[in-house]
Amino acid sequence: MRKFTGDQLVMASHNKGKLREIAALLAPFGIKVSSAADHGLDEPEETESTFAGNARIKAHYAAKATGLPALSDDSGISVDALDGAPGVYTADWAETPNGRDFAMAMEKTWNLLEAKNAPFPRTAAFNCTLCLAWPDGHDELFVGKVDGQVVWPMRGEHGFGYDPIFVPNGFDITFGEMDPAKKHEMSHRADAFAKLVAGCFD
Ligand SMILES: O=c1nc[nH]c2c1ncn2[C@H]1C[C@H](O)[C@@H](COP(=O)(O)OP(=O)(O)OP(=O)(O)O)O1
Ligand SMILES: [Mg+2]
């Protein structure tokens, strides 16, 4: 596995919630972190049908465009009773002509479960694939996951995306209600990040 030896990294994401969380995870390493927007990059189309495929598109695009190592995150929530949906299409479910509407996407998720009369607990997992790519085309991938259940109604003001309807196993609060520092200890993103640190940062 290739080690990260530089002191600068581009976060190949346009999601403010993710950027905040990954900046917190990277903070102890003394790396200068910039975002795709800082470099004036647009969002590449996520045309693959896997988290890994889309993570690679985003990281390679940013690494080539900036000449710096780039870290991307492709993530989503997979609901068991919906055969893994929305999964890779989690962000797409929130898309509207006026931007993303996650309240609508969460309602759609819950309504589909209701329509199926899905049994409780309505188990689900958040998945995260991180891709660290170098300008020469090399990359390393790391996969993380956290199991839990989808609940209703939405609860909590922290986090982003689908956090208000996801209760991780072992807790009775949603990610939206959880202290951000706690989420950073145990989320799908934290899980993948720990593997990145073990593989590339030691
Ligand atoms: O911790 C999370 N808490 C709540 N929701 C989450 C989380 N992690 C991913 N999600 C949801 C929302 C996000 O919009 C979608 C990922 O879609 P995904 O394409 O990977 O990210 P994105 O388009 O928002 O930003 P970008 O591609 O620029 O990194 O899954
Ligand atoms: Mg995206």
Automatic annotation (TrEMBL):
Example of a GO cellular component annotation carried by this entry: cytosol
Q: Which residues bind Mg(2+)?
A: 45, 74
Recorded catalytic reaction(s): these are: dITP + H2O = dIMP + diphosphate + H(+); XTP + H2O = XMP + diphosphate + H(+); ITP + H2O = IMP + diphosphate + H(+)
* Entry keywords, A to Z: Hydrolase, Magnesium, Metal-binding, Nucleotide metabolism, Nucleotide-binding
The UniProt record gives the binding positions of substrate as 13-18, 75, 160-163, 183, 188-189
Please list the cofactors this protein needs. Mg(2+)
Q: Which InterPro entries match?
A: dITP/XTP_pyrophosphatase, ITPase-like_fam, RdgB/HAM1
CDD domains linked to this entry: HAM1 (cd00515)
Annotated active site: 74 (proton acceptor)
Question: Which terms in the Gene Ontology molecular function aspect does this entry carry?
Answer: dITP diphosphatase activity; ITP diphosphatase activity; metal ion binding; nucleotide binding; ribonucleoside triphosphate phosphatase activity; XTP diphosphatase activity
Q: What is annotated about its quaternary structure and interactions?
A: Homodimer.
Q: Which protein, by its recorded name, is this? A: dITP/XTP pyrophosphatase
Per the UniProt record, the source organism is Thalassobius vesicularis
Q: What is the gene name? A: rdgB
